Amino acid sequence: MFVLSARPIRQTMAPSSGGTTMPALEKLIKISKDRSYDVYERFLWPERVSEDALWCDENLLTTYGTPLHDRLDERQRIALSKWEAINFFSLNVHGIKDAIAFVCNRFYDRRYEKYSEYLHFFLSEENAHMWFFAKFCLDYGGKIYRTLSVKTDDASSALVSDLYMFSSTLIFEEFVGFYNQKVGNNDSVPEIIREINRQHYIDESRHVQFGREVIKDIYEEIRRTDPNWEGRHAEIEKTIKRIFLHFIGLMYSPSAYADAETHKSLGFSSAPELRNVLRNAPERSAYHALWFKKTAKYFENLGAVSSSDFL
Ligand SMILES: [Fe+2]
Ligand SMILES: [Fe+2]
After folding, report:
1. pLDDT band at 17 (very low <50, low <70, confident <90, very high)
2. What residues sit around ligand 1, an ion, with C-beta below 5 angstroms?
């Protein structure tokens, strides 16, 4: 999902240097240890997932709030919820793959020395998440959807490129967290779905804390050291906003509409046509804001974007 650009070779930590760990990170490491679990034993995987109930909260469906939603009957809404859940979990698989690749490239770079210890926990947790999201998609949907990458390979320096990668990861994690928290507390969705969402939400709260910390650290360094800060800031603001809009767009999946046959139920000639209508429906803006506002506000408070009203 994230595109990495070529970077200069970095200086790595000398074998004897060890890592300085901030108290906040030490706390995160302790919580990660205390809450660790065997992912391969964590869930009871049913033979099949019931299609008698929605697979997410109704107000998480991408038709919700529009007049089209009212034209779907219960069975059609359940079909949509199933394939949108497969889409959502597929997005996680791709996002995690890229986050893992990125983190592996940064282990023991001098720049991230103080984070190295925590990054091992991050990596191990994301590996577990990728396993359960992929298993769910394959066992109950028979596939993992493909996805489009966000273009961040035009970064003007290696550090700006890192800022984009950590920002993409954070924006995605908070986006996922909103969904996970709601579905993880919904007693009417099938148990395996509730449990996956619940577990992921618990683990991700630590990643979000870490992401906010490291982004602030990188952003401040760029601001302090860049001789062309004004131009750099404009570039950063534009890219951060583009990342948000990219993720909003990914919620609307033509593949999910096609598998659920939602476009046929609503009289559209193709799934991409329905996708464009829903993506641009004015009623949907309020839901985009609901999902992404908190994170946009974080970037506004940081100074990376001038206002969080662009969603
Ligand atoms: Fe995750
Ligand atoms: Fe994460």
Report:
1. very low
2. 129
